[in-house]
Amino acid sequence: MDELLRDFLTETGESLDRVDAELVRFEQDPNNVAILTNIFRLVHTIKGTCGFLGLSRLERLTHAAESLMGKFRDGMPVTGEAVSLILSTIDRIKGILDELEDKQEEPAGDDTDLIAQLAQMARQEAAASPPPVPEKISPAETAADLPLDAGGGETAVPGADKAADDATERPAAEAGDRLSSHSIRVSVDTLDRLMTTVSELVLTRNQLLEIVRRHEDSDFKVPLQRLSNVTAELQEGVMKTRMQPIGNAWQKLPRIVRDLCAELGKDIELQMHGAETELDRQVLELVRDPLTHLVRNCADHGIESPPARLAAGKSRSGTIRLSACHQGGHILIEISDDGRGLDIARIKAKAIETGLAGEAELAGKSDADIYNFIFAPGFSTAARVTSISGRGVGMDVVRNNIEQIGGTVELKSAAGAGTTFTIKIPLTLAIVSALIVETAGERFAIPQVSVLELVRAGGAGSAAEHRIERIKDTPVLRLRNRLLPLLYLREVFQLGDADRDSGFVVVIQVGNQVFGAVVDGVLHTEEIVIKPMSSKLRHITVFSGTTILGDGSVIMIVDPNGVGQTLGRAAQAQVESIELKQSEEAAVDEKVALLVFRAGSQRPKAVPLPLVTRLEEIDCRRIELSDGRHLVQYRGQLMPLVRIDADAALRSEGAQPILVFSDRGRSIGLVVDEIVDIVEDKLDIEVSGSRPGVLGYAVVKGATTEIVDVGHFLPQAFEDWFRHRGAAKTDGARRILLVDDSPFFRDMLVPLIKAAGYQVVAAGSGADALAAIKSGNAIDLVVTDIEMPDMDGFALARAMRSVPAAAGVPIIGLAAMVSDDTIERGRAAGFHDFVAKFDRPGLIAAIKEQSAEVTRAA
Questions:
Q1: Of 776, 752, 747, which is closest to residue 762 (Cα–Cα)?
Q2: Given this model, what pLDDT does residue 382 score?
């Protein structure tokens, strides 16, 4: 193919994608001159290039579309019909470009029907529009518009377009000339070959490093280290050339959502956040179709019709939200809607109908497990087949495509509140860091992005800190008061039975699933090049590829997703159930980590250690006094310093010890005199505090200790601390379920509630809270933040009413601002009371009142 034609096809394809998205934006914001100018410039450039290359059919089409958009620029109202007509023209142009790429010549065809519609639309709208308000027009625009005759055609005025371009495009051209020395266009094939070459270089580097490891005194050690550094820099540079913003995969989504709205009769707003997040081009291409399918599903199945939304107390317009961000070596993508949520009853019925599960089996499954049936091949709950969905083809393909590139798809849904899909994919598929482990005399590579930590474990009778135990034949590891289900890679890979309950445990996370893989040894970490599996081995789901180590050995790369699937669902559920009961039974009298310090007096004071972000010693010269407040520059922002009482004075020289408390981007420093110790003890407050800032007094390691109420000091630093984060506090009756998505505030509020004489069970999300309620453990009162991701407080309250044992449990909602609208929504959802988050006395009073109601009802 001619190089000029190839460049034209590439640039025009990119421009048309931008025009698609910009037209949808312009339809929603018709007074935005910047958007219209950008669209006009793109179409004008395409038209000019078509004329230069002699592509007459494309030139006529683009000219007709440009003429109609010119009327918009003159003040003609923007209508949905006009935008639809231009989008149809863009689709026709794309079809012609596809044939042009295949045949390398412009296909013959007659577009007079579309051109006539564009011209008629321009005449009709212009006649119906009031005369445009005269505005200052540049000579270039005048020169560009003069060649148009009354019939919408173009007279033969030699050089008119060139004159317009010379007058209007010169600054951009000059900018382009300046930028031309900083950028070039490189073909994808060239980049792929370069990546392959770098991969081979990495393998060679690894082999040389292995040789040097065996010869410590080698003269090659220093130059090889330099070669290793250069290789790493080259690898990073090549990776950067392959990185593209994920927004490139989102360009067509606004147009798709717009067309779906017209077809389905719905009002949907598409919000996109994090479009600048970059990932490897190869991964981007593989994730493009799954993202499109999920957005279409949200629009078709998730968002209700306007009448249904209004009847449910929602706004007429629904929302689909896309967001992307980096998380370690992964990209995290969320696609969520505020629609009806998944119908669990219909999913159960369909699962029974298709033979996926029986009624007895479904009764023992959690809601999350039942939701996952939608990923089964051929599964659909659609009442009828449409051009959009209903055939049961798609969701299984979405999951398979994501998992094939080492990613995961998670699903959360709440009735009446919407559905969220969370996709986690690797940044790149070429070179990754891996942990090399050994089991049964064989070595394997585990991608390090899935590894949380390593633990050395002993058997049940050993003196090791961490011991492998068995619960009904299921091996588990008790790690920081949590039961972790285990599997032995020796058995998973069918290399023999595990002959001992000891070894190294590789803690792996796949989505929300965390488990331990027991191996015989951990060797080292290494940058590995991923090689594809042989076609004869691709059915083995526990492996994702192969690699060559530095010593020349070929080993298998473990697929954490496949390994996680071998962990029986029953075993996982059994461990989770036991863990939940044990945590609830120990919630009242378990030992907690406490930071003991002194401030203002010799009496020891303490706060729960999980609340403390850092212990710092600040140079006193860095402390500034402004408007009566002490401040210090800390990690790129100003941090207020707060004293526990008037006796806790700041030092004037040397280093000032402080306790740093942080949450959601804000930090405060609590001034102390000295750090005494970190201890583990029961937090049993025996005497309530008599002054603000003190929860009460407890015996900690034999000494009477003040338990500090951190929540009292937060508003002294930031008056809107609680309103800022949309945080929640929770309290309860005899046994209270506290629900808040922030670990900081859960750790802060549990001691406060215990000090008021209640037992506390904490949950980090609405879904976790619902699971605790369904587990059968008695809950007397629920206090929940109303602003939480996925399942908020309103959705939790509605879901509780469908659980017979929890239908009468009082619910207290915590809100940053308690408005009439919030109260009305709360009453409809089933809330008994609302308390402002910063009203601590009001919260305790509400808990006592609801507790008394529970007692009277009993």
A1: 747
A2: 58
**Identity of residue 94:** K
Is the separation of the CB atoms in 730 and 745 below 8 Å? no
Cα dihedral sign, 330-335-336-342: negative
b/e 630-663 (16+ beta carbons within 10 angstroms → b):
bbbebeeeebbbbbbeeebeeeeeeebbbbbbbb
List Cα–Cα distances, 490 to 495, 499, 585, in angstroms: 5, 10, 35
Report the C-alpha gap between 779 and 736 in whole angstroms.
Answer: 6
For the beta carbon of residue 432, count every other beta carbon within 10 angstroms.
22
Q: Give dist(CA 163, CA 383) in Å, integer.
A: 60
Residue 95 φ/ψ region, left for φ over 0, alpha for ψ in the -120 to 50 degree band, beta for the rest: alpha
Phi, psi of 662 (to 5 degrees): -135, 145
Judge contact between 418 and 434, C-beta under 8 A.
Answer: no
Give the bridge partners for 705, in sequence order: 698
Tell me which residue of 369, 465, 448 sits closest to 411, measured CA to CA: 369
Please name the helix (run of DSSP H) or strand (run of DSSP E) that holds residue 424, with its range, or none. Answer: strand 418-426
Residue entry with tokens 């034609």 = 5
CA distances to 161, 325, 364, 431 from 427, in Å: 45, 11, 37, 10
CA separation for the pair 767, 776 (Å, rounded): 15
In terms of pLDDT, which residue wins out, 782 or 357? 782
Report which residue type is found at 823.
Answer: I
The residues pairing with 408 across neighbouring beta strands, listed in sequence order, are 424
- Coil vs helix vs strand at 652: coil
Report which secondary-structure segment, H or E, holds 505: strand 503-510
Q: Which residue has the tokens 């000579």?
A: 139
Across the range 739-757, mean pLDDT stands at 75
HSE (side-chain half, CA atoms, 13 Å) at 45: 18
The amino acid that residue 28 corresponds to is Q
- Are 427 and 331 in contact, with CB atoms under 8 Å apart? yes
In the predicted model, is pLDDT for residue 797 greater than 70?
yes
**DSSP sequence for 454-490:** EEEEB-TTS--SSBEEEETTEEEEEETTEEEEEEEHH
How many alpha carbons fall within 13 Å on the CB side of residue 373? Answer: 27
d(CA 421, CA 398) in angstroms, rounded, equals 11
Task: Take residue 461 and report the two structure tokens written for it.
Answer: 């009778």
By the 8 A CB rule, do 345 and 371 touch? no
pLDDT of residue 142: 32
Q: What is the pLDDT of residue 163?
A: 33
Does residue 674 carry a pLDDT above 50? yes
Segment of 14-18, 95-99, 394-398 carrying the highest mean pLDDT:
95-99
Query: In this structure, are strands 482-488 and 513-519 parallel, antiparallel, or unpaired?
Result: parallel
More confident residue, 82 or 133: 82
Q: Which residue has the tokens 């120990």?
A: 586
Q: What is the pLDDT of residue 444?
A: 92
Token couple for 366: 């959690």
The mean of the pLDDT values for the chain is 76
Rounded to whole angstroms, what are the CA distances from 724 to 665, 668, 715, 727, 803?
10, 14, 11, 8, 33
Mean pLDDT of 348-375: 80
Burial 113-141 (b: 16+ CB within 10 A, else e): ebbeebbebbeebeeeeeeeeeeeeeebb
The whole-number pLDDT of residue 481 equals: 62
Short-list 583, 641, 610, CA closest to 777: 583
pLDDT at 781 over 50: yes
Query: How far, in Å, CA of 837 to CA of 849, rounded?
Result: 17
Q: How confident is the model at residue 728 (pLDDT cuts 50, 70, 90)?
A: very low
**In contact, 371 and 347? CB cutoff 8 Å:** yes
Q: How confident is the model at residue 664, as a pLDDT? A: 61
Helices 3-28, 253-264: axis angle to 10 degrees equals 50
Q: Is 853 helix (H, G, I), strand (E, B) or coil?
A: helix
Which residues have a Cβ under 8 Å from the Cβ of 45 and sit 6 or more positions away? 15
